[in-house]
């Protein structure tokens, strides 16, 4: 895995996957992106295409319906998709890293057999309900409760900003809830809640600045009852387990952000070669050329960072610090490149039909979701012993 970091050349299987997803993104995703963004509609036909390609099963073993690949393969797919449509990329990222991965990492064999085949096939989506109005990075703010009652968990509370939680194919939400207290501190566990459970409601979707074709809802739980065996992982380890999921997910989000950053470079290079001003293509002007050169440098640096974090993860080595570095650097690269690309496109960059305009709106969340830039700085500092 680490061999190609020095050469920059992907092994054939990784390269073939990336090229296949790139072709899919250009042929299937790009033509419908503007319409789905404008109408805030979930791209079911695109998701079906990704499912047919096996993208939802990339990092999972074949015994659970997966493709037998690894997390880096997922990252490559996310990078290619995000070049043309971040909403589609985050649908895949959340479906795998937040939806299916917690079950694979911490589920019982029975839970894996029940849920993973449909999730890895992309026939169903799962979501992870962590964030609340007063709780995200601060686990102590969690107010959703789950109480054992007659062999069932009785769940009450609410969640917000939950991706893939209200689609027609969403079948499961994993919920963090307070299940007791230990040493005066809240005991937080994770519980699997099928979406057809009485009392579970996906509230109306948010009106968002970007990621308009991504499904995002607040959730409410009113006397929701699920079997006691729906506990995911060890009781009281829910938040700790999810931190591991977030560490992995930050590498995937970094890959998505790199795709957005590179997409802005690619669009800018094309436009700068086609757009004439004062008798020559604007790309011949040093101001434009240098701006695009800096954009390319940002994308390259961020890509190297997430490659490094992924290599450590797959080698079984500590990767928390590198994942935070990759997520922070890539998120900032995406936002900076989107701003510069919009400037290069001028008035056209302000029109939603253009990819760079959507990147400008979409990219801000990459500095916020799955841990803000400030949280990443905190985690990096802690890893340095500060």
Report on the structure:
By secondary structure, the chain is an alpha+beta fold. It is built from eleven helices and ten strands. Strands 1-4-5-8 form a four-stranded mixed sheet. Helix 5 (86-106) runs antiparallel to helix 7 (238-274), helix 7 (238-274) packs parallel to helix 9 and helix 8 packs antiparallel against helix 9. The two termini are 31 Å apart. 51% of the residues are buried. The model has no long low-confidence stretch (mean pLDDT 95).
| Spans where pLDDT lies below 50 across 5 or more residues | none
Secondary-structure element order, as H and E?
Answer: HHHHHHEEEEEEEEHEEHHHH
Summing up helix and strand content along with how strands pair, one would put the structural category as alpha+beta
| Number of continuous helical runs | 11
Question: Beta-strand level of the residues, as a percent range?
Answer: 15-25%
Q: Spatial order of the strands in the main sheet?
A: 1-4-5-8
Shape: globular
**Averaged pLDDT:** 95
Structural Rg? 21 Å
Question: Distance between the terminal alpha carbons, to the nearest Å?
Answer: 31 Å
Largest sheet: 4 strands, mixed
The portion of residues assigned to helices is 40-55%
Which key terms come to mind for this protein?
4-stranded mixed beta sheet, 386 residues, alpha+beta, 17% strand, 10 strands
């Amino acid at each position: 895995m680490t061999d190609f970091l020095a050469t920059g050349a992907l092994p054939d299987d990784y390269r073939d996957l990336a090229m296949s997803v790139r072709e899919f993104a250009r042929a299937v995703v790009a033509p419908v992106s503007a319409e789905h963004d404008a109408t805030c509609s979930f791209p079911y036909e695109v998701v079906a295409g990704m499912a047919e390609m096996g993208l939802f099963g990339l990092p999972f073993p074949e015994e659970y319906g997966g493709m037998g690949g690894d997390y880096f393969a997922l990252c490559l797919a996310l990078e290619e998709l995000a070049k043309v449509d971040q909403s589609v990329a985050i649908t895949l990222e959340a479906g795998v890293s937040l939806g299916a991965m917690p079950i694979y990492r911490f589920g019982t064999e029975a839970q894996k057999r029940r849920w993973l085949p449909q999730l890895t096939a992309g026939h169903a989506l799962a979501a992870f309900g962590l964030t609340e109005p007063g709780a995200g990075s601060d686990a102590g703010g969690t107010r959703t409760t789950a109480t054992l009652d007659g062999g069932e968990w009785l769940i009450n509370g609410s969640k917000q900003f939950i991706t893939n939680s209200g689609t027609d194919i969403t079948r499961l939400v994993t919920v963090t809830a307070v299940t007791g207290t230990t040493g005066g501190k809240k005991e937080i566990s994770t519980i699997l809640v099928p979406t057809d459970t009485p009392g579970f409601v996906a509230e109306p979707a948010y009106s968002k600045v970007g990621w308009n074709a991504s499904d995002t809802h607040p959730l409410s739980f009113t006397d929701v009852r699920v079997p006691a065996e729906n506990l995911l992982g060890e009781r009281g380890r829910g938040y700790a387990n999810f931190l591991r999921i977030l560490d992995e997910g930050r590498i995937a989000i970094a890959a998505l952000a790199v795709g957005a950053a590179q997409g802005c470079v690619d669009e800018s290079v094309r436009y700068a070669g086609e757009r004439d001003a004062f008798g020559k293509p604007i790309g011949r002007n040093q101001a434009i050329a240098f701006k695009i050169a800096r954009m390319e440098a940002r994308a390259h640096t961020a890509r190297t960072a997430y490659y490094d974090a992924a290599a450590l993860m797959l080698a079984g080595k500590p990767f928390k610090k590198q994942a935070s570095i990759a997520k922070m650097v890539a998120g900032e690269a995406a936002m900076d490149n989107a701003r510069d690309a919009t400037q290069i496109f001028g008035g056209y960059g302000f029109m939603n039909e253009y990819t760079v305009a959507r990147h400008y709106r979409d990219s801000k969340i990459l500095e916020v979701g799955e841990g803000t830039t400030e949280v990443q700085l905190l985690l990096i500092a802690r890893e340095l012993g500060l």
